[in-house]
Design goal:
The complex is a heterodimer of chains A (254) and B (365).
Chain A lengths: L1 E12 L2 E12 L3 E5 L6 H8 L7 E6 L2 E2 L5 H7 L1 E3 L12 H8 L8 H5 L3 H20 L15 H14 L4 E5 L7 H16 L4 E5 L3 H7 L2 E6 L2 E6 L1 H6 L1 H8 L4
Parallel strand pairs in A: 3-8, 3-9, 6-7, 7-8
Antiparallel strand pairs in A: 1-2, 1-4, 4-5, 9-10
Helix pairs in contact in A: 3-6
Chain B lengths: L9 H4 L5 H15 L1 H4 L2 H26 L7 H17 L4 H23 L4 H21 L1 H4 L5 E2 L3 E3 L2 E3 L5 H23 L2 H11 L1 H6 L4 H27 L1 E2 L6 H14 L4 H29 L9 H16 L3 H15 L22
Antiparallel strand pairs in B: 1-4, 2-3
The chains are: A alpha/beta (254), B mainly alpha (365).
The complex binds adenosine-5'-diphosphate and magnesium ion.
């Protein structure tokens, strides 16, 4: 079953067509990668899913819902979580607090019960912590749980962002360049985590990534983009050997 | 260094780190509550004033310190709360109903202001709210039949269960009234911060885009923050009215707005402690200055001269120093000092340094 559907989506920034008549589908349970040179429109695809921009034309559907009908905060409520290419954590909060914000969509309490911190608010906090603690264990973040984000090294922040997205208990996880700026070891860790996220947690993954080793290692299908449009779509091997992709990456052979 | 081992989740949920910390705060509370026996009426009055400012600071802290929305207009909400309280009491509503209601009405007023303000960020929001504060001054003058205009209003104490509570006649009781309000507001604030709503305030402050991506409705969150902030500020305003006794349009001028914002910046944005520390500075600075002026006069043999604006000028200078050298405020400084002692001799200079952050415009690419 297809979980996410892009149908003829176009987005323009002034004169620039960032996404050009793009169609693709992400199947439930797969790891789907988007590759392409800088400025190809990959992050813009993510931002469209997050509803930060309204497309100029086309439709985006998730799990049977028309995403274009919901506001940005509603996307998470359907079960879509994401990370950002340039890391968007809550800087002046601890790792634990960041992950707890991820639990926001499961909030059942209201203003009054929270201010009074009623037993139901307490119970909810305990449940949130249990869930968050599982993720901290899964991603090996124990040493950082009470640290402020503003003091953490880059590699740890990348992982915290993945952890925060997982804390929302998503059906679909969007990872924007999860391995960029990571060391070789950190990239290997990330690779196993993505594998586990799909296999153990049963979460569908859509990721943008430049590291072809990581892409071919974990993804089932790959979409190659250039100038906002689709170049090729298929297995990692198919896409890597596709003439249009080779041309886009290496330039026209003269 | 005290090391706290965590053995269950409640340890993170409880507002205190360990029983030592809880004991310290309880001892502090007992000492403060005993102030009427420890201090003379003058200093008790000053302490009451500090607590009222701290409540106002807590109000602004919710909006500016925790939600990241700068307001230079909170004197307008102090005024709203003050007038609402007095007008209700004059209409025969008992204080115990009028007072909570005054805060709630101020909260509602805050929501009506929040809605047009939602799209404004940073300096624009500051200007918008400042205009509000200036406007409030005129509104009070124009609405003379209700507010008493330039002549102002006067309230000689309130009755609680047939018992007079007044700043002059019964300063002890008035102090306890203010203390109880301060405790309630602080406890509510602590609860908020350990619950989803408080965390969503922080989320909106630090990154609106990722708050949204986590399912936080930014507009709704900001509106709620305005509501809570203004309600608390309204209560502080009502207490300020009782403390002042007589007040008019000038009592809550835009200068008060600025002073309130300076206060929480000096105290430390984004912490409950910051509101209290800032209030202590703003409350005791005038006393400190007048005492030091006497010393200076005594030392140099001159007589004490009044320098107009000295207080505000020194306050401004302190603020500039903090912004340049300690943007985290007094509470931030305290945390660093404490860490230094706890880690001695392993403290590193860059321990609290921030990592590179991106400009907002390049963040989403
Ligand atoms: N908010 C924006 N306003 C204007 N142009 C944008 C905006 N976001 C992205 N772009 C442009 O759209 C194009 C695609 O960007 P992006 O999706 O970030 O590329 P990438 O594939 O490297 O992630 C780029 O040319 C970029 O400059
Ligand atoms: Mg990108």
């Amino acid at each position: 079953m297809s979980m996410l559907e892009f149908e003829n989506v176009t987005l323009k920034f002034g004169g620039l067509t960032a996404v050009n008549d793009l169609s693709f589908e992400v199947q439930e349970g797969e790891v789907f990668a988007i590759v392409g040179p800088n400025g190809a429109g990959k992050s813009t695809v993510f931002n469209l899913i997050s509803r930060f921009y309204d497309p100029y034309a086309g439709s985006i559907r998730f799990d049977g819902h028309d995403l274009l009908q919901v506001k940005p905060s509603g996307v998470a409520e359907y079960g879509v979580a994401r990370t950002f290419q340039n890391i968007e954590l809550f800087e002046h909060a601890t790792v634990l607090q960041n992950l707890l914000v991820g639990r926001h969509r499961h909030r059942k309490t209201n203003l009054v019960s929270e201010i009074l911190f009623t037993p139901s608010a307490r119970r909810q906090e305990l449940e949130n912590r249990e869930k968050v603690e599982e993720i901290i264990d899964f991603l090996d973040l124990q040493a950082f749980r009470d640290k402020m984000i503003s003091g953490l090294p880059y590699g740890v922040r990348k992982v915290v962002e993945v952890a925060r997205a997982l804390a929302t208990d998503p059906k679909l996880l969007l990872l924007d360049e999860p391995a960029s700026g990571l060391s070789v070891e950190e990239t290997t860790d990330m690779r196993w985590w993505i594998d586990d996220i799909r296999r153990q947690m049963g979460i569908t993954v859509l990721m943008v990534e430049h590291d072809m080793g990581l892409v071919s290692g974990v993804s089932d299908r790959v979409l190659a983009m250039a100038d906002g449009a689709k170049l090729a779509l298929g297995t990692p091997a198919e896409v890597q050997s596709h003439p249009a992709v080779v041309e886009a990456y290496l330039g026209k052979a003269s | 260094m005290r090391i706290v081992f965590k053995t269950d989740y409640m340890q993170d949920i409880r507002p205190w780190k360990d029983s030592f910390q809880l004991t310290m705060y309880l001892i502090l509370l007992v000492i403060v509550a005993a102030a009427p026996w420890l201090l003379d009426d003058f200093y008790l009055g000053e302490l009451t004033n500090v607590l009222i400012w701290a409540i106002a600071g807590l109000g602004l802290m919710i909006l500016t310190g925790h939600t990241g929305q700068v307001s230079l207009g909170h004197a307008a909400f102090l005024a709203f709360g003050c007038y609402a309280n007095v007008i209700l009491i004059e209409a025969g509503v008992p204080f115990l109903i009028a007072f909570p209601l005054a805060g709630i009405l101020t909260g509602i007023a805050g929501v009506t202001v929040a809605i047009p303000a939602l799209r404004l960020h940073g300096i624009y929001l500051a200007i918008f709210t400042m205009a509000l504060s200036i406007l409030m001054d005129d509104v009070i003058v124009l609405a003379e039949p209700i507010t008493g205009g330039v002549a102002g209003k006067y309230l000689g104490g309130v009755e609680i269960f047939g018992h007079l509570v007044d700043r002059w006649a019964t300063p002890d009781q008035f102090f306890w009234l203010v203390l109880i309000v301060a405790i309630f507001v602080t406890l509510g604030y602590i609860n908020l911060l350990r619950a989803p709503l408080g965390r969503s305030f922080i989320a909106v402050r630090d990154s609106e885009v990722s708050a949204q991506a986590m399912g936080v409705d930014v507009a709704k969150t900001k509106t709620l923050s305005f509501a809570l902030s203004c309600a608390v500020t309204g209560w502080a305003g009502a207490l300020m009215g009782l403390y002042a006794g007589a007040f008019n349009n000038e009592t809550f001028s835009v200068i008060i707005s600025i002073q309130l914002l300076m206060m929480i910046v000096i105290g430390g944005l984004g912490s409950i402690h910051g509101a209290f520390l800032g209030a202590i500075v703003i409350g005791f600075l005038p006393q400190f200055l007048s005492i030091s002026k006497e010393y200076v006069a005594a030392a140099f043999g001159g007589n004490t001269v009044a320098i107009p604006g000295l207080e505000f000028g020194i306050f401004g200078a302190i603020l500039i120093c903090f912004i340049l050298f300690e943007p985290m405020g007094m509470y931030g400084r305290w945390l660093k000092i404490r860490t230094w002692f706890e880690l001695f001799p392993f403290y590193r200079k860059d321990m609290f340094k921030r990592q590179k952050s991106y400009l907002k415009t390049e963040r989403l690419r």
